[in-house]
């Protein structure tokens, strides 16, 4: 079997859709469709090769998405210390699985399933003495690209765990300023100056951050975790990005497991600020 490296990639296809997935981190590297002339139209702002990633493009964020202040957390009456690996401050950020090889369990032309296991022996000294078996499945179908996440606790104690996903979307504008967005959150987390949640939820009603109906992004600088999401009767929440003039629209639907969505305009990406909009479903608010 060929070893998985940061440059390992595989392509899924269904009708005129293509997705490029890497078993390095189970990451989504590209998602596009072919127009009637065969031209590639990006849906996800992506990259090729392990060295091409910027701003966490397409990363899977497990067992914790977002930031943990000072890398310290408490669970089940104990306090644990994680490595502080965040360039924005002394925080732990985005879990352990985005820069390690995953195993390919099943694959066909339009679908791939990958797994990885975090074990107590390896991760105890990194502040996470728990064991998880994690599965991610990407599938192209007539509805678009679906991403399914499963986590099984394979240890002998309860474990704290959250899931996040970090794709950036584009509707073909040179800057995301020229698009408009719809975000289902009725509130968002207050962050401190190190982008760590304070524990307070701020309502969006009658504020600049109410995007429950389409509004232009313009110069708005997003790095917000939206919560209390509006949902259908079936529990589905929907965010969307739309080209203002052509009305080309990308929709991102989240089932009831995802209680929060982070929206980020990528202002801190040095060589490509505001090139695309990160819309990041999360099962916990952080």
Brief summary of the model shown:
With 286 residues, the chain is mostly beta strands.
Describe this structure in words.
With 286 residues, the chain is mainly β. The protein has 2 domains: 166 residues, Beta-galactosidase, Chain A, domain 5; 115 residues, Beta-galactosidase, Chain A, domain 5. Helix content is 1%, strand content 46%. The chain has a 6-stranded antiparallel β-sheet with strand order 15-24-23-20-17-18, with no helix packed on it. The N and C termini lie far apart (38 Å). 37% of the residues are buried.
Secondary structure layout:
Layout: E1 10-14, E2 17-22, E3 27-34, E4 40-44, E5 59-61, E6 67-69, E7 72-75, E8 78-81, E9 91-93, E10 103-108, E11 111-118, H1 120-123, E12 132-141, E13 144-153, E14 164-166, E15 168-169, E16 179-182, E17 185-191, E18 197-203, E19 215-216, E20 223-229, E21 237-243, E22 249-254, E23 260-264, E24 277-282
Antiparallel strand pairs: 1-2, 2-3, 3-4, 5-14, 6-9, 7-8, 10-11, 11-12, 12-13, 15-24, 16-19, 16-21, 17-18, 17-20, 20-23, 21-22, 23-24
Looking at this protein, list some descriptive labels.
286 residues, Beta-galactosidase, Chain A, domain 5, 6-stranded antiparallel beta sheet, 4-stranded antiparallel beta sheet
